[in-house]
Write a structure and sequence with these properties.
The chain is α/β, with parallel strands linked by helices.
Length: 191
Amino acid sequence: TFADENGFDGIWIPERHFNPFGGLYPNPSVLGAAIAVKTNHIHIRGGSVVAPLHHPVRIAEEWSTLDNLSKGRIGISFGSGFHPKDFILAPEKFENRKEEMFKAIETIEKLWKGESITAASGVNGDFTVRLFPTPYAESLPTWLSTTRSHDTFIEAGTRGYNILTALLRLSIEELKERIDIYREAREKAGH
């Protein structure tokens, strides 16, 4: 609670699987729930939630629950995933993981706004589903996790998302270049 009591803004909880490096963080929403009930101010952010590994309704449901527990102190940085071993959870999604991530984000945003989606059930085809519990916050603060991909920086800017990045395999000059193209794309899209 030191961070909560001393004006820190947020805590980022990664999603990592099957590896000693970060493997203590398989589900940011579960760990975020523990933080939510122990704090009052600090924002709880998933950084990154690897969207292609999970059904988007499940992501929306877990984070809406966390949003209610924290009274609106959450945000998600979505990642497409990079480690093939993580994809034992959804091997069919590895090849098109970036497209899968954007499809998942769009579904999560619809659900967050109170819209219904159509999804396959276990019996008799499709049915309509809405998000319960309904989110506490009106909108979901959204980031994209990226380091090297120019395209992802541009896509984040175009869609009006924030960026979560790091200086892993990236120089300060390269990061500046990516921030510049992100800001240019954001401005061009009217954000």
